[in-house]
Every structure is written in structure tokens, then in C-alpha cells.
């Protein structure tokens, strides 16, 4: 690019009949102009490259946030009439009043306000007041699960709770139900279900 600019200057100078000294001066000016333009172009390219890198990093961070959604809300799967995935799974040990049993709650809803389906709720009354003390235990709990609003409900009768095994694996709370017998509200028939719940602790 610089050579082209200098050649153009020489052609103009020759056609105008300039002296040797004048031609040298014009060539020097052309060199300075070309160097300045090259520096400006280099700066612009560097700035554009830096902006591109920044945008790529921003996209990567956003992707990381999205990929981490499951970790922030937990997740669960159950075999109802077919394998069913639940978008969230929270565990909480609620101390009601002194002298009364605590309530272990595992649910697809954090606060019971959202109407997201499929949905499930597991509840057990316990004497424990510390969630960590439940690691390795199997508790008797009531289960309710519904795949869609208005659809049939899988549930365990009060007199026939399901066994739920609690564990801590790689820093994650895990609850499991293995071939437990439950009822279906649409048929009043017993059916066997299993489930794995990777829970996030809800304070």
C-alpha cells in the first residue's frame, strides 16, 4: 500500500516537471502519510480484534451460566407411566415448633407458588432437626407426582408411605425411591415407581 502511494506521488511529480529536490520532498511526505495511515489501520484492526475477543468471552460466560442452571435448581427423574424428568428438585428440613416433628420436604417447587409441570412433592415427618444428620438414612414419606395440570396424580396413601433413601454424593444431596408402590388417581390401581432426585438445599 505504501509503495502504491509513493509511486503515485512520483508520477504526479514527473508529469508536473518538478525538480529532483522537490521530488525528494514529495516522496518523503508521501512516506510519512503512508506510515501514518498504516498506523491508524493497525490501531483500528487491533481495536476490532479486542472487541471481537470481548464478545466471544461474553458469549462463553452466558453459555456457562445457562449450562449451570441445573446445578442451581437441582433435577429429578421418576418412572411414572413412563420415564419423567423434572426441571428442579429442592430439599428442605422445616422445624415447625419445639416439641413437634420436623418436616422433610423434597419438591420440584421452591416455594410452592410456581405452577410448573411435571411436579412432585415428597414429605416426611421426622424427629431430626439437622439435615446433615439424615445422610445415609431411609425415611418413610408421602409422595405426590403429577405430569401435567389436571392430569392423574401418583400418590402414596398415608397408611402406606414410600421409603426414601438419602445420601450425599460429590457434594450433592441425592434422594432415591426404588420400586415403591403408589396409587394412581385415574384408576385407583397400584403401580410401582422409582426415582432419583438430585437436590439443591432450600434454606
TrEMBL record:
Full protein name: Lipoprotein
Organism: Rosistilla oblonga
Amino acid at each position: 500500500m505504501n509503495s502504491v502511494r509513493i509511486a503515485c506521488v512520483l508520477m504526479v511529480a514527473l508529469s508536473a516537471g518538478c525538480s529532483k529536490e522537490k521530488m525528494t520532498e514529495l516522496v518523503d511526505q508521501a512516506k510519512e502519510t503512508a506510515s501514518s495511515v498504516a498506523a491508524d489501520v493497525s490501531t483500528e484492526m487491533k481495536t476490532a480484534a479486542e472487541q471481537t475477543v470481548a464478545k466471544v468471552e461474553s458469549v462463553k460466560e452466558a453459555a456457562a451460566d445457562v449450562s449451570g442452571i441445573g446445578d442451581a435448581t437441582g433435577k429429578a427423574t421418576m418412572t411414572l407411566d413412563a420415564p419423567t424428568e423434572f426441571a428442579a428438585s429442592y430439599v428442605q428440613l422445616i422445624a415447625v415448633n419445639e416439641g413437634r416433628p420436623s418436616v422433610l420436604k423434597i419438591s420440584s417447587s421452591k416455594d410452592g407458588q410456581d405452577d410448573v409441570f411435571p411436579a412432585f412433592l415428597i414429605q416426611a415427618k421426622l424427629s431430626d432437626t439437622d439435615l446433615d444428620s439424615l445422610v445415609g438414612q431411609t425415611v418413610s414419606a408421602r409422595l405426590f407426582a403429577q405430569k401435567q395440570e389436571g392430569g392423574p396424580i401418583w400418590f402414596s396413601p398415608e397408611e402406606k408411605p414410600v421409603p426414601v433413601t438419602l445420601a450425599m454424593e460429590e457434594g450433592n444431596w441425592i434422594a432415591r425411591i426404588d420400586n415403591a408402590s403408589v396409587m394412581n388417581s385415574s384408576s385407583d390401581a397400584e403401580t410401582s415407581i422409582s426415582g432419583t432426585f438430585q437436590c439443591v438445599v432450600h434454606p
